[in-house]
Amino acid sequence: MIVDILTGAIRSGTSVMFATQGELISERAGVINLGTEGSMLAGAFGGFAVTVWTGNPWLGALAGGMGGLMLSLIHAFLVLTCHANQLATGLTLMFLGIGLTSFFGRDFVSEQIVGFNPVPIPLLSEIPFIGKILFQHDPLTYISFLLVPLLWFLLFRTRVGVILRATGEREEVLHANGLNPLLIRYAAVMAGGFLAGLGGAQLSIAYTHSWVENMVQGRGIVAVALVIFASWKPIRAMVGAYLFGAAQAMQLAIQQMGLPISPYFMFMAPYVITLVALYVVEYKQRSQIPEGLGKVFTGVSSG
Amino acid sequence: MKWMRSMLLLLMVMMVVVAGCSQPGAEEEEAATETESEASTEAAAEGAIGTGGTAVGFIFVGAKDDFGYNQAAYIGSQGVEEAFPDLKMLRVENVPETAEAERVMEQMIQDGAKIIFPTSYGHLDPALNVAKRHPDVAFFHQGGLKNAENLGTYFGTIYEPVYLAGIAAGKMTKSNKLGFIVSVPIPQVLLNVNAFQRGAQSVNPDVTTTVVFTGSWCDPGQQATAANSLIDGGADVLTQHQDCTKTIIETAERRGALTVGYHADASSLAPKGWIVGSVWNWPALYVDMVKTASEGNFKASKYDGKYRGTLSDNIVLSTGFGAEVPADVQALVEEKKQAIIAGTLNPFTGPVKDQSGAVRIEDGVNPTVDQLESTDYLVEGVTGSIPQ
Q: What pLDDT, on the 0 to 100 scale, is given for residue A259?
């Protein structure tokens, strides 16, 4: 039972986890991207379409990531170059993503793909308890396992990470050091879009093997919320995403036990549990919001 | 272009003037332009509901090829298209169950539709609003429980083939656990779950059906989680009441579970695990409804109210069996099917007990379709609870 819930947590949390890490990179560099939902859809659709055409899910995953990247590039251009409002632009891109993918996706609803399938890792998957939870997943899920420590290392143990974080905190300092905050932000937003797209692709070509209109169903929005509640920390964001997945799996498991709890309450549970849990963590350990978040660098030092 | 725009403007002004002058006069105008079909001209002169249109409108809540509810309805609309080559088909997919649906229907009426099919359960209230504003337009709502002067509802007793599928599932299961993935607890959904369990139980007293609500008609991510979760919990046959059926069927197939389909024949998705499915046969019914309304006979017909087609009407059907289904199971299902058609078998002949053991249908009583469509309980043997 507990094994099932934890396995389910990873199964349904992975797509959100990719998007959460992507949004985290973007916000660390100072750009909020509410278009994550749109990027996930672009990834889900792009990944599915390319997998249909080529029969190769790896190309599909790459295309999914690129789809998310392209959409976030529009965000970066509008926000960073044209100085548009970040929140409004993000929302617009979310709807653009829904519209574009619905329009081009019409003919793909009934397509069948082979896609990614669970690959049990030899030996490790035999370990009782942990083996089933962690080592019987699809390849993209394994990649997501590696992503988090990698991202943590990149952000907090390398020069690149320092520069990225500085961009989101004090861009003037960066500028004074001869670095271009604009370019770094572009790179961060695009990397974020790529990961969101990869998350969408995981949903379509690895988890469900399906494409339907608007199939992301708010997971991108959840990802944005998770980043804030995880106070911009990769490990905590990962826990948050799995918590969301666990709550989803748990509400289904509780229904199956036949407990007299209203499913309507259970539908709400993933969101409530995730938010409450992360809020408690955040409350205990107040952490700083990147100071430059939401601001736009104009190249002129205001100080 | 400029010329066309001024013509359009002129036309619009004329329409407003004509409509403003007098209602009957306007309808004669329309009738005069409609000379192709004698029947419609004649009827339009009487101003009957649903006559005089140049188009038929269909709105779908999902995509036309979802291996499910919307695909079935779309195939129905193709039947109308073939039968009435002179009528323009106005189809809009992915219409949400909100005021947006009203806007789409208003547009269809402007584009010449006098007959509209709002095909999703949640399109009923928007359709009732539009119907009030346009008393001359006929509405055929799929599955609704409310009516209006010019809005009739139609549906089928799909629980009959679902009961038959339950018999096959009850015979085929090895774990005696069946899984049923549903959206929200509306009567039709509960009725199908109950029919499935009763069918299975009639041939296998040890069988139980576990029902899970996803809260959505089509969220593949949640469907996959639900399907995996049911299989992890020991279910070896999965069925569903969702609009898009592909994800659940494919997930079951990949994990080696058996599948009972719903809405549309998806046996191609599950070559190994397909048992049987319950599907709609809309084309014949849609064509007859359009014919009835466009000839001005809506009011007197059986479609002016609540029409429910049955297995014996050929409105609901069972699909073919999967390759793995043994001949004796097929024969048993066929036998029960003939009994339902002959009227000697009713899936809900009492006693029917709910989950708490309370008797809901008394011993020996055959409930009416109306009674069944107000089902608000799950029967004994079903695990899961209804939102209160």
A: 76
Contact B228 A219 (CB under 8 A): no
Tokens 């105008």 belong to residue: B29
Q: How far apart are CA B29 and CA B11, in angstroms?
A: 13
CA B173 to chain CA centroid, Å, is: 28
Identity of the residue in A15, A212, A255 whose CB atom sits nearest the CB atom of B212 = A255
User: How far is residue B89's CA from residue B239's CA, in Å, rounded to a whole number?
Assistant: 33
Cross-strand pairs, B259 = B238, B274
Q: What is the model's pTM?
A: 0.83
Q: Which residues neighbour A48 within 8 Å (Cβ) at sequence distance 6 or greater?
A: A60, A64, A105, A108, A111, A113, A201, A204, A205, A210, A211
DSSP structure string for B296-340: T-TTTSTTSSEEEE-TTTTSEEE-PPPTTS-HHHHHHHHHHHHHH
CB contact under 8 A, B244 and A212: yes
**Cα-based distances in Å from B127 to A95, B60, B95, B134, B144:** 26, 13, 12, 10, 10
Res. A87 pLDDT band, cuts 50 70 90: confident
Q: Chain B: nearest CA to A213, how far in angstroms?
A: 8
Measured from the Cβ of residue B325, the count of other Cβ atoms closer than 10 Å reads 18
Place of tokens 């083939």: B161
Q: CB-hemisphere CA count at 13 Å for A153?
A: 5
Amino acid letter for position A251: Q
What residues of chain B, 54 to 113, have a C-beta less than 8 Å from chain A?
62-63, 65-67, 71, 93-94
| Sequential DSSP letters for B70-130 | HHHHHHHHHHHHHH-TTSEEEEE-S--SSHHHHHHHHHHHHTTEEEEEE-SGGGHHHHHHH
Nearest residue of A to residue B248, measured between CA atoms: A208
User: Does the structure show a pLDDT above 90 at A290?
Assistant: no
Which residue ranges in chain B fall short of pLDDT 50?
A: 1-2, 12-13, 15-45
Sheet with B151-156: list strands edge to edge.
B88-92, B55-59, B113-118, B138-142, B151-156, B306-309
Q: Which residue of A has its CA nearest to B243?
A: A212
∠ Cα B258 B261 B263 (to 5°): 170
State the nearest Cα–Cα gap between B207 and chain A, in angstroms: 15
**For residue B216, which amino acid is it?**
S
The residue of chain A with its CA nearest to that of B269 is A112
Q: pLDDT tens, A227-241?
A: 887 888 999 999 999
CB B68 within 8 A of CB B242: yes
- Confidence at residue A15, expressed as pLDDT on a 0 to 100 scale: 96
pLDDT digits (tens, 9 = 90+) for A193-225: 999 999 999 999 999 999 998 999 889 988 988
The crossing angle, in degrees rounded to 10, of helices A263-284 and A219-229 is 30
B221 Rama class: left (phi>0) / alpha (psi -120 to 50) / beta:
alpha
Q: Report ipTM (2 d.p.).
A: 0.85
Q: Residue A255: which of A243, A245, A265 has the closest Cα?
A: A265
Which pLDDT band, with edges at 50, 70 and 90, does A267 fall under? confident
**Chain B positions in Cβ-Cβ contact with residue A255 (cut-off 8 Å):** 211-213, 384-385
